[in-house]
Each structure stands twice: as structure tokens, then as C-alpha cells.
Batch of 3 targets.
Target 1
Amino acid sequence: MAQVELNQSLFAEAKDKTVIITGAARGIGAATATLFNAKGANVVLADLSQFRTEAEEVIRTQLAHPDRAAFFPANIVDWTELTECFEKTIARFGGLDIVVANAGIMESRPVLDLDAVDEDGRLLESEEAGRVIDINLKGTLNSIFCPFLLLMLLIPSLLQPPFVANKINHL
């Protein structure tokens, strides 16, 4: 596996910033939260409510500054729940500076199963493809647009919207 080198200068300005990381209860999201928190940032681990225990374990055991972290449930496909996550973040930490749109899934079954046909031999729609597209496309777009819209409504004079990183716009 290839070694990824992080440009540490990107994190030099993280101190005292507030960062939301979606899909942060495990894996890359948890590692990202750990890194930002170690650099002095307030971090919100945003993930599905069923991952609360894992996220709280990350906060307790992996973060250098657990007092500067919170878990807020957020299903990135559910606009209302995602908006509540952003609102809670702003209420808790007084603002929002960075959003890392990390949440996503891989297909767990083939998305183009040519053997999946109905009784008349017609190809069935791939529910798995729809799920992957909903989460990886719609969810990422929600994660990107929600903070802009919310902050513009809450703070009309906001000149600097939060920086958003996703799997295309790497940190």
C-alpha cells in the first residue's frame, strides 16, 4: 500500500478552529478528528446515531483534548438531521470553520447484477447503486451546502464561509 504524506503546514492554522468531520466514528474520519484535535481544533464527530458509542470512545481514548470534542448524530442524507448537527456545533463552539465531508460507503453487493431479473426476465433496478449514490453524492452535497446555507442565514454578514474538504478536494 502506498504511503500518504500529509502536508503538516495545512494543520498549522487548525488551533482554535471548529471542524465537523462526517463519518467520524471510525476509520479515516476518526483519524482525521484525532489529528485536528491534536492540533488544537474543536472537533465534532458527526456520524449515524448507531455509532454514538464508537464516537464517544474515540473522544475518550484517542483525542488529546476531549473537552474540545463532541459527537452529534448526523445522517448526511437527512437534511433536517444534518442541519441540526451544524446548529448544535455552532451553539457548542460558537462557529464553524472547516467541514470534512468524509462519510461515504462502498457497495456491498454488485451494482450491475445481470442475473437479478424479475419473473419476466427483465433486469431489476439496483437498490445498492441507489444507496451508494444517495450517500456518496447527495450526502456529500448536503455536507457541503448545509454549512453555507445555515451560516448565511444565521450570520448574514458572514464574509468567510467555512472551508470544505471532501474526497476530491483533499486537505
Note: The mean pLDDT is 85.
Target 2
Amino acid sequence: MLFRSHGRLYISDEALSQIVVLDSYGRYQFRFGEFGVFGVKFNEPQGLALDEYGHVYIADKGNNRIIKVDARGEKMMDIPASEGHLVAPVDVKVLGDGRIYGLDKAGIKQYSALGRFEKMVLAVDKANAFTVDEQQRWVVAFKEKGAVRIYNAKGEVLLTLADIEDRKSTR
């Protein structure tokens, strides 16, 4: 996954358990992380998010946590599995109000800016990625189902976009 902050491009490298940072021209700047459990060590880093201050949030799937680092990769905070029963997170988002949203096996969970579990926002099974707008409309991707669903703030499905090839094969 790629995200841009302050002229930098952050790439989550799941295979090598690290984050690679490039400049705005695609030139290598530095990397941080390695395989492991504690500190700035990862086990299958997945989705990335950036806040307005340039802090990077990483969904660390294999370690069942979301970790926050500064722009240089120094650990600032983590949201451990014990907060809201976080299990195998695959994506993360941070909204302007500082709230953190993590997508794990159970669905999308909301955390305070300090990483405290607040509530389950949307229960979805086997989702791979998500985004949200300021009106709390949730766009959720399901790789296995070949579909994208859009939900309103109440969790009601507004629209489902399915893979056309998948529809042809079921007729």
C-alpha cells in the first residue's frame, strides 16, 4: 500500500516485514522495521494511514496490533490485541478528529486518538480494505467475494459492486 506525506511515499512490505520510504521522485530514502514482535518489528504489516502531523499508522496483522510511528519510523504508540479484541488487522484509517479505525477479522473498530477501544463500527467478515468519508459512509472491499460494499453510518448496505466475471460464472 502506498501513501504520501510531506513528499514521502511509504510502502508496506509484507514479505520482508518492513516499511520502505521513497521521496517524491521514487528514490529510496530509508526503511524501518524488521520481522519480530516488540517495538518497531512487524509480522505481516498491511494497511497504512497517515495523520495530519505525518505520523504513520500500520496494521500489523501477524502481531494483532496497530502501531503508530513518527515520520522517521520511531515508535510512538501501539494498539494491542487487548484493546477491543483486535485480531489480525489488515487496514487502518485516521480521520481529522484523530480517531483511529482498524479493520480486523470481526470488522471495523473505532479507537480514540490515544488508542483506546471505543466501539465496533461495522461488523463485516473477510474484508480486505476500507475507507470512510466525513458523513461516515464506509466503502469496504472483499477480495474473496470480488465485491465492494458501501454502507451508511447505521451500517446499512447502500450499494454492492460485484465482479462482473463472477456474476457471469454463476448464471
Note: DSSP finds one helix and 16 strands in the chain.
Target 3
Amino acid sequence: MSPNEHKPISEAEKIEMRDRVNARIAHWCSFAALVIIPACFSYGLDVGAGPSLLFVTLPTILQDIPMGRLFAIILYLAMIFAGVSSLQNMFEAVAESLLHKFSKLSRTAVLAILCVLCLGIGIFMEPISKWGPWMDLVSIYIIPIGATLGAISWFLSLIHISEPTRLQLIS
């Protein structure tokens, strides 16, 4: 194994640690609901506002609390990081597939192509009001089915790999 290769277990340990940190943050965010919902009622704002809860309701609440600007900066920076990490997660599988199929392309070129394609498609999709039900169908049914099929295919691939490779993955 060359020094540039990563051991699967050490990578798994890093991912597991990041997962723990994210779980703690999600746990803290669940406590935030105990603050946001009563604040919505006290300000006479709609609790079920959806995305506008983040962009309309929270700024209204944060402007009246001590150090509200600091909390707003932290909140929106966290939202930016959440969006970027979600994009990275979605782009990773597609980029690896393209790199495997077109080995002459550089990783930077593949990511640039994906970014331009997604930005172009996203800009033209925004004004179409009938995308809501389609996006709900994709996010509620199609993505979990795809993830399940991916997990099944990964486990099936472990059956078909050689014994030394399997032992290397496990150890």
C-alpha cells in the first residue's frame, strides 16, 4: 500500500467521528425548536411557515435578542456549510462515476462541468411552479430507493471480491 492510499478503516473512523459531531449538532438543533416555536407564537408568526421560517421568522426573532446579530451570523454560516456539504455529497458519486468512465478528464474539470450543469438546470427550474410535487416524489421515494439499491449492490459486491481484498477491507 503506497503512502498516498487511504486505509478504509481509518477513513471509516474519520467518517464516524464526523457523524458523531453532526448528531450532536442535530441534537442541539432539536432544542432550538423549543425556543423557535414559542417565539413564533409570541411574535404572532406562522409556526408552519416552512422555508420562510428560516428567512423571515428567525430574523424577526433574532433582531430583538441580545447578541442577535452574532447568532444570525452563526446560523447563516451553518446553513451555508450545510448546503455546501450536501452538494459535495451529491456531486461525489456522480464525479467518481464520470472519472471512472472518462479517465482522461481531471477531477477539477469534472467538478466544473457538474457545477455549471447543475447551476444552469437549477436557474431554469426555479420559475416552474409545477416542480414541487415532482421534487417531493423524487426526494421521498426515488432517492431512498436508490440508496437502498446502492447498499444492496455494495453488499453483493463484497461476496464477489477475493478473500485477500475482503480481509484488507475488514482489517
Note: The two ends are 14 Å apart (CA to CA).
